Amino acid sequence: MINGRRHGELAERIANDIKKRRRLDAGIDQLPFNPMNLPGNNPEVKQARELEGGIVIIGRPTFKEFMAGLKRGWLESLEIVDKEERLSRELENDGRFDEPELEPSTSFNAGEDEPIPTPSKLKPSFVPPHLKSGARPPSSQNDHQPIPSALNIPPASIPPQPPLLLVPFLNYIGLTQIPHMIWEFFNERHKVRSGAEAAYRIIVGETRPVTAPSNFEDADPTPAEPFQAEPLSEPLDINFNKDFEAYYKASFVKDFTSEIQKAREGYYQELSKKLETARALARGSREPTKDEVNYPPPTEVELRAERMKKELRWRSDEAGWDIVKPSSSVAWDERFRSTLRVFVEPSSEREAEFRRQAEEIMSSVARKEEEQQ
């Protein structure tokens, strides 16, 4: 089971796994040495085993992240991008850690006819090597080699993918949906039935190609409609659980992005004070207070690392929310149309054959038990 704890984690993992596979298939990377060369560790064997099974997707947000990761993994460049290094370069030039310019003053004398030290004479604050623009994290030799353009373009067709089992799920959020939560608590049998029917579909194994609108684009001008009187005659897989998105109020969608912005603004307001304290204590321009002795404030190095960690999380949350928010459509590429398949309710012929096979197996088991007795 793959479970993303934050928005966007699932899409990121799927995209990275696909890119690793593409790099191996293109000969850019090599498989790591494995002393236990078991048959099951062969990539071809693993891929064949995956195609024999399937992928269970629970809920529309998971479906959106899966499709986004699938599209990024197969269509993006194979170049390895270090997110921390790229972000450190961007943050380095935003001026948050720049030294303030001190105005010269003739009324103050620091002793021995020395004027107030200029920023150039102040003790420079230490910058960790991994945050400097010229530093590079240790990486393999293949990471620095340029990838030939012929290998770095998206494939004309995508290899076969395991079929998808789409399981509907709705997570009630908010006070107005408490009645739905209460009803759901006392009617768990509906979830059990839905799960059993989904498991039956994957056991029988009947599939069909995924359905999507012709000339589909990653834009969805139509809002979700949860209380549609009549279902569509030909429901599209790309609209899986779309009606559930209307349960999320616009205020909830707005609050998610605004909370990140408020947290960022509040952090940077406090950062200047913390940075001033850290530099004053590092240069010995004042003595630490009693509280600072008992609970040392963070140093400038720690503040830089903390800022990097927070910005990575904020930006990942924003990017992940852009994928799953109700106003976003499912990522799509026309190459998926001939590659993706979904499990469906078995036809009467397939179900009859499956029941016949099951009866034969049960009869064989019963005969063996009788012989043993």
UniProtKB/TrEMBL annotation:
Subcellular location, principal: mitochondrion
Identify the domain of life: Eukaryota
User: Which InterPro entries did the record assign?
Assistant: Mt_import_IM_translocase_Tim54 (IPR021056)
Keywords carried by this UniProt record? Membrane, Mitochondrion, Mitochondrion inner membrane, Protein transport, Translocation, Transmembrane, Transmembrane helix, Transport
Return the annotated region ranges for Disordered.
90-155
Q: Name one GO cellular component term.
A: mitochondrial inner membrane
Biased amino acid composition, Basic and acidic residues: 90-99
Question: What is the membrane topology noted in the UniProt record heading this document?
Answer: Single-pass membrane protein
Q: Which GO terms describe its biological process?
A: protein transport
Report the subcellular localization. Answer: Mitochondrion inner membrane
Q: Which family does it belong to?
A: Belongs to the TIM54 family.
Q: What is this protein called?
A: Mitochondrial import inner membrane translocase subunit TIM54
State the organism of origin: Phanerochaete carnosa (strain HHB-10118-sp)
